[in-house]
Amino acid sequence: MITTVVYSESGGTYKTTMTANIAVALERMGKNTLVIDLDPQEGNLTSLFDVGQYRNDPDADNLVKHILDMPDGDFHDLIESTEESVDIIPSHDMLGDFTSNLEQKISYETGMQNISREEYPRFKLLYELLWKKQQLNEEYDAVLIDPNARAEDLLYNAIFAMRTLVAPVKPAGKGNLSLEGLEELVGNMEDQLDIEIGLSCVVPSGVGQTNAHQQYREQFEKTDAFATPVTIGDRESLMDAMWEARGSAFKVVEERWKTFEQDGAMVSEPGHRRVRDREIDTLRKLYELARFIAVDTFGADVDPVLELEFQDEETRRIDLADKDPVEVSYT
Ligand SMILES: Nc1ncnc2c1ncn2[C@@H]1O[C@H](COP(=O)(O)OP(=O)(O)OP(=O)(O)O)[C@@H](O)[C@H]1O
Ligand SMILES: [Mg+2]
């Protein structure tokens, strides 16, 4: 079972887009994949995949109600599917009030059961729900969480349930600092939660061609402190188009989504994007990243062949098992 939280202390480090891309890559490798969106803010996985139509409805059943063991329906009714076959538990506004709802539950239950607040397993609730009550391990090969880094209770629940982190970092003073803080943070979480947390890998992303960026990249690739299987370049146009295509970077490139001006208005449509080698190379790296997580971190078997079927163009086949997988074969 592949279980991971895509984690970064700082905002805007490409967590959400990366979660979507890893999930779709795993699905394409033959892994039945579920993503859980724990971020109640706009621009989350739920909006990326265009799901969660009841996320603002306070009466709708949602994940928080299930985590707090007060469900309003069947757990499986929370799960939606996306066009790219990845399943998703969408976000809901109630995630924003998780801690206050949790405190109420703790007050009630500790009062009834005569246990102290400190004894209450506040970080184990998601774990209990996913693996003990719902036994999702029997249904899925992979579960990925996009958390809200600022919400400690939800984040700790996510980490307690998943145990493994993938950490995207951005080349900036800030990116650097957040990484230095990462080990300390993992240590603190391990002490607090009394579990071992694994860092699968660090993924430098948004790395441009400037000297400063390239030095940053070398610094990451050289270190023995953690694995850095791939570096993702500055791909703003490709990743931004994901929000229009409502799906992964694989979808953007295959369906050739592009945003352009038409009669004075900006429109986004499939069928217009040029097939660029550097974007195909980025897809290969995302696939390689997913393979690293699946195989090197979790010992899973995956299909190492990435087939890209472009709209109105030739199909390309990239075999990661090839000695030089950068070489793409045409069919
Ligand atoms: N490799 C990249 N290069 C340049 N831009 C990127 C790259 N990956 C993603 N982006 C863009 O950066 C923006 C932020 O990405 P994203 O929403 O994934 O970050 P986040 O860490 O989830 O942010 P938040 O902390 O707000 O949740 C998006 O507009 C996305 O399209
Ligand atoms: Mg996000």
TrEMBL record:
<keyword id="KW-0614">Plasmid</keyword>
<dbReference type="InterPro" id="IPR050678">
    <property type="entry name" value="DNA_Partitioning_ATPase"/>
</dbReference>
<dbReference type="Pfam" id="PF13614">
    <property type="entry name" value="AAA_31"/>
</dbReference>
<protein>
    <submittedName>
        <fullName>Chromosome partitioning ATPase</fullName>
    </submittedName>
</protein>
<dbReference type="InterPro" id="IPR025669">
    <property type="entry name" value="AAA_dom"/>
</dbReference>
<dbReference type="InterPro" id="IPR027417">
    <property type="entry name" value="P-loop_NTPase"/>
</dbReference>
<feature type="domain" description="AAA">
    <location>
        <begin position="5"/>
        <end position="190"/>
    </location>
</feature>
